[in-house]
Amino acid sequence: MNIGEWKEKLKQNWECKYDELKQFKEKHGNEAMLPHGVLRNWLGYQKLDYRNMIAGKRSQMTLLKVQRFAALGVRIEESKRIVTYSWKKRKQQLQEYRTTHGHLKIPLSHELLGNYIHMQRWGYTQFMEGKSKCNGINDARIKILTDMGFQWNLEKRKGPQDRTKFKSWSERFQDLLEFRRTYGHTRVPYEYQPDLMLADWVRNQRRDYKKMKDGNKTQMTPEKALKLFDIDFVFNNTCGRGKTMDLDKTVETAANKK
């Protein structure tokens, strides 16, 4: 690849990322809500390039690019220093908002809390999927925010869904026991209308068990797996049986890694 071809490829890559940013802005309205990833990193590099250009250093930034960012409403110049708040302060801000407005249906465009609630929902999703990067979200914070009336998932689903009370693993396990007493098995349907959160929880247990079995980081523990095993939990829903042949080996391996 010669220099001309290389420059053309760089130009194409820039245009591609710019179009992605434009689409994100049209959908979400604020580039500050970009999730951690390639596009957010790219925008960070553009801001760095801008600072280099202003400082007279080597840079790929041009005045035309600056104008195009301005047309999107994206500021790449130096802005005010970002103020970070502690969890205690954020909780206080949410309480004040609820006192003033009577709810926590905070718009993403809210200057003080918009980006924060977006990151809390992102962290909640990461946490529920057993990922390590979850923006400080844990069981205690989920319960506190849920009790305050915070909505974790804004996606619409069929049927009513009670999200007013977050339940711990032990509480969900008791719900599963009640389901088993009623129906004689633990195969909770995907769209179990009386408790959609229980259906989600059951799927998460299967996923987390597989992660533990594969040696990956997960919310599943040997103790949890054994409790589920004792009530004939269906770890692999495709086989229709609760007790998997290699459960003892899986639990032993996971316990040894602690």
Structural description of this entry:
With 258 residues, the protein is an all-alpha fold. 56% of the residues lie in helices and 0% in strands. The chain is built from ten helices and no strands. α9 (222-230) packs antiparallel against α10 (247-256). It is elongated, with a radius of gyration of 24 Å. Mean pLDDT is 78; it is low at 156-165 and 239-255.
Summarize, please.
The chain has 258 residues and is mainly alpha-helical.
Span of the ends, CA to CA: 50 Å
The shape is elongated
Low-pLDDT stretches are: 156-165, 239-255
The average pLDDT is: 78
Number of helices: 10
Give the biggest beta sheet: none
Order of helices and strands: HHHHHHHHHH
Helix and strand composition category: mainly alpha
Characteristics of this structure?
single chain; 258 residues; mainly alpha; 10 helices; elongated
Write the layout of secondary structure elements.
Blueprint: H1 3-28, H2 38-54, H3 63-72, H4 87-101, H5 114-128, H6 139-148, H7 169-183, H8 196-213, H9 222-230, H10 247-256
Helix pairs in contact: 9-10
